[in-house]
Design goal:
Oligomer: single chain
Structural class: alpha/beta
Distance between the termini: 27 Å
Number of helices: 19
Strand order of the largest sheet: 2-1-3-4-5
InterPro entries: AAA+_ATPase, AAA_lid_NorR, CheY-like_superfamily, Homeodomain-like_sf, HTH_Fis, P-loop_NTPase, Sig_transdc_resp-reg_receiver, Sigma_54_int
Protein name: Sigma-54-dependent Fis family transcriptional regulator
Pfam family, one: Sigma54_activat
Organism: Roseibium algicola
Keywords: Activator, ATP-binding, DNA-binding, Nucleotide-binding, Transcription, Transcription regulation, Two-component regulatory system
C-alpha cells in the first residue's frame, strides 16, 4: 500500500503518516498540490492520496483527470472543518478523515483501498497443490496467468509469487484493468510525454516503469481493450515500452503476472482477446479452486476472519457453535472467500452470548444462509465436504484435528471432550501432551482456539 500525504496541518498529518506506516503503508510526503503531482509523474506512484482539506482538492482532481492519473483522494482536516469537508467530497474526494488522526479510522480507510490484506490462509489439499506450484515457479521470470472465480484470492496468490521470487525486494505494482476507464488505461500502464494530449503538462511515468526490477500484476486483464493488447504484447515480448507521445522505446525489466475470472480461451474464440497475448501470459497457469471445491479451507478461513474482526472491533474472540459450523459448511459460497469474509465480519458484530450461533450467520439482507436448500441437501453437501477434507491426509492428522475440534467445541473441558470422543481422559491427556510437544496450540480449560 503506497500512500502520498499532501499538506502539513501543523504536524497532524505527520502523526497520520506514522500511524499509516505502522499499518504497513509506504508513505511519501508533499507540501502542496504541485509537489504531489511531481511525485505521481516521477514513477514513485501512490495507491491513495491523503490531502489537507484547505488545499485546492477540486483543482488537484481536475489535474489528475487532465493528466490521466487514476488514484483515489481522501481529504483530511480538523473536526471543525465541516463545510470544507463537504466541499471536498463534492469536488470528488472519496472520504473525509477528521484530525487529530484516529488509528482505527486510518486503518479502515487503508484497508478499504487495499481491498486485500494479502493473508494466505489455506488447509485444503486442492489449494495446497496450487500454492506448491506457485512457489515452484516463483524464482523464475516466467509470466504467470492466475485464473479462478471472483473472490477466490487471485491477487493474494500473485503477491505470494512475488514474495517467493528473486524480485521480492523490488516493487510489486498492481493495476486493475477493469477499474480504470479505457481512455486512461494506456497512460496508466505506459506513462506519457509532455504534450502527448491536452492536459499532459509534464512527463508521467507509468506502471511498467514503476515496477522496473520487480513485478507487475495486470488484474482482470480480460477487460483490456483489444487495441491496447497489441501494445502490451510488444512490451512483454521485447521488454520495452512506448510512452504515449514518446519518440523512443524505454527498456523495462519486469516480471508479468495477470489474473482473469473469465475463460480467456473462449474470449479468444469470440475475438475479444488476442491469442498470441494469451500464449505469452499463460506460460504457467495457476487455477484457483472455488471455495466450494476446497471445503477444508472454509472453517480455517472462518476462524481466521473471526479472530481478525473480533480484534478490529474490540470484542472477545468467540467460538462457532456446531450449528453455525454446519451452516458454513453447507453453503455454496458463490462469492468465494470474499463472501465468507464479509459473512464472518457480520457474524462477529451480530453474535451475542458466549459463542457465534447460527442466527448470526446471515446474508447482507438479513436472511439465513442457504435458505433455498432443503435439510437433506444441506446434510448431503456437508457430508461430502467433510469426506473430501479427509482425502490425502494421514490417519494421525485426521485424529488430531478431530480431537482438537472437539476440545474447541467443549471450550477446553477435557472430561466432556473425552466423553464425546469415546476415549479415556488419560488417553486424551497423552494425546494433548504429544501435540503440545510438537508445537501445536492446545486450548486450556475455558478457552477456544481462535
Amino acid at each position: 500500500m503506497r500512500l502520498l500525504i499532501v499538506g502539513t496541518l501543523g504536524g497532524q498529518l505527520t502523526t497520520a503518516s506514522k500511524i499509516a506506516m505502522q499499518g504497513g503503508a509506504q508513505v511519501t510526503h508533499a507540501d502542496d498540490i504541485e509537489g504531489a503531482l511531481r511525485v505521481l509523474r516521477s514513477g514513485r506512484g501512490a495507491d491513495l492520496l491523503m490531502v489537507e482539506v484547505h488545499l485546492d482538492i477540486a483543482g488537484l482532481i481536475q489535474k489528475l483527470q487532465n493528466e490521466r492519473v487514476h488514484v483515489p483522494v481522501v481529504a483530511c482536516g480538523v473536526e471543525t472543518d465541516a463545510q470544507a469537508a463537504v466541499s471536498a467530497i463534492r469536488a470528488g474526494a472519496k472520504e473525509y478523515i477528521p484530525l487529530p488522526p484516529d488509528p482505527e479510522l486510518i486503518a479502515a480507510v487503508l484497508a478499504a483501498v487495499a481491498q486485500e490484506r494479502g493473508d494466505l490462509i489455506y488447509r485444503d489439499d486442492a489449494m495446497a497443490s496450487v500454492v506448491k506450484l506457485a512457489e515452484q515457479v516463483a524464482p523464475s521470470d516466467a509470466s504467470v496467468l492466475i485464473t479462478g472465480e471472483s473472490g477466490t484470492g487471485k491477487e493474494v496468490i500473485a503477491r505470494h509469487v512475488h514474495k517467493c521470487s528473486n524480485r521480492a525486494s523490488k516493487p510489486f505494482i498492481s493495476i486493475n484493468c477493469a477499474a480504470i476507464p479505457e481512455h486512461l488505461l494506456e497512460s496508466e500502464l505506459f506513462g506519457h510525454e509532455k504534450g502527448a494530449f491536452t492536459g499532459a503538462v509534464a512527463r508521467r511515468i507509468g506502471k511498467f516503469e514503476e515496477a522496473d526490477g520487480g513485478t507487475l500484476l495486470l488484474d482482470e486483464i480480460s477487460e483490456m481493450d483489444v487495441r491496447l493488447q497489441a501494445k502490451l504484447l510488444r512490451a512483454i515480448q521485447e521488454r520495452v515500452i512506448d510512452r504515449v507521445g514518446g519518440t523512443r522505446p524505454v527498456p523495462v525489466n519486469i516480471r508479468i503476472l495477470a489474473t482473469s475470472n473469465r475463460d480467456l480461451a473462449e474470449s479468444v474464440r469470440q475475438g475479444h482477446f488476442r491469442e498470441d497475448l494469451l500464449f505469452r501470459l499463460n506460460v504457467v497457469n495457476l487455477k484457483l479452486p472455488a471455495l466450494r471445491e476446497r471445503p477444508a479451507d472454509i472453517m480455517e478461513l472462518a476462524l481466521f476472519f473471526i479472530k481478525h474482526y473480533s480484534e478490529a472491533n474490540g470484542v472477545p474472540v468467540r467460538p462457532l457453535s456446531v450449528e453455525a459450523r454446519q451452516a458454513l459448511m453447507s453453503n455454496p459460497w458463490p462469492g468465494n472467500v470474499r463472501e465468507l469474509e464479509n459473512t464472518m465480519h457480520r457474524a462477529v458484530l451480530l453474535a451475542s452470548g458466549g459463542e457465534i450461533g447460527v442466527e448470526a450467520i446471515r446474508m447482507p439482507d438479513g436472511s439465513p444462509l442457504s435458505v433455498s436448500k432443503g435439510a437433506a441437501e444441506r446434510a448431503a453437501q456437508t457430508a461430502e465436504a467433510v469426506t473430501r477434507s479427509f482425502v490425502g491426509r494421514t490417519v494421525a492428522d485426521v485424529e488430531r484435528d478431530l480431537i482438537l475440534d472437539t476440545l474447541d467445541h467443549c471450550l477446553g473441558n477435557r472430561t466432556h471432550a473425552a466423553k464425546i470422543l469415546g476415549i479415556s481422559i488419560r488417553t486424551l491427556r497423552n494425546k494433548l501432551n504429544q501435540y503440545t510437544d510438537e508445537g501445536i496450540s492446545v486450548p486450556g480449560p475455558g478457552e477456544a482456539r481462535a
